[in-house]
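S1.2 Input.
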Amino acid sequence: MKELYIASFIHQGILGGALYLTDTMTVFRTNKLTVDKKYRNLQIKYADILGCIGGWLICFPSVTITMKDGMAYKFVVFARKKYLNRIEELRR
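S1.3 Output.
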């Protein structure tokens, strides 16, 4: 199973790409070569997630994923409610 959500990663600016939900992780992918490899294919395992919350970035819907190690990743996700509902289902 793989679900796709159009998203932008907020890291040193706004980086366009997509979030994928798989059975074991959510993955952010972008094709920009000027970005560090870690962020071109950012894999976030459900077991490592502490929490996910919705919010706003100016007037855009955002999602912040907080990790157990203290890291936090913020994304603009236009289908925010659907994404948050699905990620919570998959984390259980």
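S1.4 Remarks. The beta strands are 3-10, 14-21, 25-29, 41-45, 49-57, 60-67, 72-77.
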